[in-house]
């Protein structure tokens, strides 16, 4: 997404009692001060009550992905499920490559044949 919709900017403006910075000014600010971007992201994560994916949570997520992989669907649907699971559990989702690898492994570990129907899972 290259820009923020006007109604979103207006919504942000009201509670802060001013004008939300434009996307261009944020980009400029963050280009000059990477530490500022890191601090803003860190505060946002804390405010939202999110946490990093810990080993126990990763095991639960892998179990859920394995269960999803047994349902009809694609890697993209499993990735979407994983991101939704992370959001619902206030966990910072792993990067795209990592989450796609987890979804792909879950799908690869399932039986390629739907034994109930006698047809390939993803023809």
Chart the SSEs and their pairings.
Layout: H1 6-16, H2 23-32, H3 34-48, H4 55-69, H5 75-88, H6 96-108, E1 113-114, E2 119-120
Antiparallel strand pairs: 1-2
Helix pairs in contact: 2-3, 4-5, 4-6, 5-6
Number of strands: 2
Alpha carbon gyration radius? 20 Å
* Poorly predicted segments: none
| Percentage of residues in DSSP E strands | under 5%
Share of residues in helices: 55-70%
| Helix/strand/pairing category | mainly alpha
What is the topology, as strand order, of the major beta sheet?
1-2
The H-and-E topology, N to C, reads as: HHHHHHEE
Separation of the first and last Cα atoms: 34 Å
Largest sheet composition: 2 strands, antiparallel
- Helices, by number, come to 6
Q: What form results from the Cα inertia axes?
A: elongated
What is the residue-mean pLDDT, rounded to a whole number? Answer: 79
Describe this structure in words.
- The protein is mainly alpha-helical and 123 residues long.
- The chain is built from 6 helices and 2 strands; from the N terminus they run H-H-H-H-H-H-E-E.
- Helix 4 packs antiparallel against helix 5 (75-88) and helix 4 packs across helix 6 (96-108).
- The longest helix has 15 residues, at 34-48.
- The chain starts with 5 loop residues before the first helix and ends with a strand.
- The mean pLDDT is 79.
């Amino acid at each position: 997404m290259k820009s923020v919709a006007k109604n979103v900017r207006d919504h942000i403006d009201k509670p802060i009692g001013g004008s939300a910075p434009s996307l261009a000014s944020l980009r400029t600010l963050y280009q000059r001060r990477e530490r500022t971007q890191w601090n803003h992201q860190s505060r946002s994560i804390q405010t939202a009550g999110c946490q990093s994916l810990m080993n126990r949570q990763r095991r639960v997520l892998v179990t859920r992905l394995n269960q999803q992989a047994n349902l009809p669907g694609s890697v993209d649907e499993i990735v979407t499920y994983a991101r939704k699971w992370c959001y619902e559990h206030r966990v910072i989702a792993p990067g795209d490559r990592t989450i796609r690898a987890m979804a792909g492994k879950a799908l690869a570990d399932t039986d390629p044949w739907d034994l109930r129907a006698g047809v390939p899972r993803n023809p």
